[in-house]
């Protein structure tokens, strides 16, 4: 490994960590979402500084070309982040749905949109 | 829209009529108000399930004892409502107006028919009663069903009919079916070509599978409250 690629690896890992921590510091990123990115940055930094770890880990799981382990872990991590976002989106959608229903009901109760007939009987359409 | 509300009031004197306007761009809300209905205007499009749940929530908060859904396209005859209500008085929590139970001449064919047959068979066993028209939107709900649906009416496509039945059955509600006559729609075009019917079959089966797989605890609280 050349000295240039060694420095590049460490520099990009440090950059990831700086960006994530800065976003956290400014509250542009919530901790629960930052966990995966912090994990990715830390892993990249450790492997960047001590590339032997990568060779050792690749041998441990039987991967012949160590960089393939990097790709595998990266894709797995991205996959989980994506999944987490989809799940989060679903939660947000159901919350928005509840809010929309509440607004509609409050508007009908208080706004000019309603023109209530007295409910003489006990059922409705 | 105005015509549907007018017919409801004409055939069912004394009822109160709620129209849920799922963010439509036409004159639905204005016509319904002019006709004397209460209108819930959703701020953005929620789909059938969202509109239904908003309606049930309204019914729950205003202590209605009974909710009957009638499609806004004029497909459901309000004259069927007394029969549905009778079924509720007979001890059912949910009464379904079915199109294939002998009355009327509503027919379908191809994948849509298979889908309906399959759904009917599975849901009949889930609900422990004979159901022939599981996707019928002509239903009456008693208080226990209203309380359940106000919190747990599914928002997904086909969830409004199929999954709501599964939820009701698994919450211990009594479901009964009565034969009704469906009329041709006053507005809108029915989707009946082969490809769309096949998609309908697939989505119906998928919706049913997930409905049966969901843990009871995800909606159990609503049935008791």
Structural class of chain A: mainly alpha
Mean pLDDT over the full residue set of chain B: 82
Number of helices of chain A: 4
Low-confidence stretches of chain B: 221-225
Query: What is the name of the CATH class of chain B?
Result: Alpha Beta
**SS class of chain B:** alpha/beta
Biggest sheet layout of chain A = none
> What is the strand tally of chain A?
1
- How much β-strand is present in the residues of chain B? 5-15%
| Largest sheet features of chain B | 4 strands, mixed
Portion of residues in beta strands of chain A equals under 5%
Which architecture of chain B per CATH? Answer: Alpha-Beta Complex
Provide a descriptive summary of the structure in words.
The complex is a heterodimer of chains A (125) and B (225). Helices cover 78% and strands 2% of the residues of chain A. Chain A is mostly helical and 125 residues long. Chain A has one domain. The longest helix of chain A has 45 residues, at 66-110. Chain B has a single domain (67-224), classed as Spore Coat Polysaccharide Biosynthesis Protein SpsA, Chain A. The longest helix of chain B has 20 residues, at 194-213. Classes of the chains: A mainly alpha (125), B alpha/beta (225). At the A-B interface, helix 4 and strand 1 of A face strand 2, helix 3 and strand 3 of B.
Short note summarizing the structure:
The complex is a heterodimer of chains A (125) and B (225). Chain A has 125 residues and is mainly α.
Features:
heterodimer, A: 125 residues, mainly alpha, 4 helices, 78% helix, elongated, B: 225 residues, alpha/beta, Spore Coat Polysaccharide Biosynthesis Protein SpsA, Chain A, 4-stranded mixed sheet, two-stranded parallel ribbon, 9 helices, disordered C terminus
Secondary-structure topology with pairs:
The complex is a heterodimer of chains A (125) and B (225).
Chain A: H1 3-25, H2 31-49, H3 51-61, H4 66-110, E1 123-124
Helix pairs in contact in A: 1-2, 2-3, 3-4
Chain B: H1 2-11, E1 18-21, H2 28-34, E2 38-41, H3 47-61, E3 66-68, H4 81-89, E4 94-98, H5 111-127, E5 139-141, H6 143-152, H7 159-170, E6 175-179, H8 194-213, H9 220-224
Parallel strand pairs in B: 1-2, 4-6
Antiparallel strand pairs in B: 3-5, 4-5
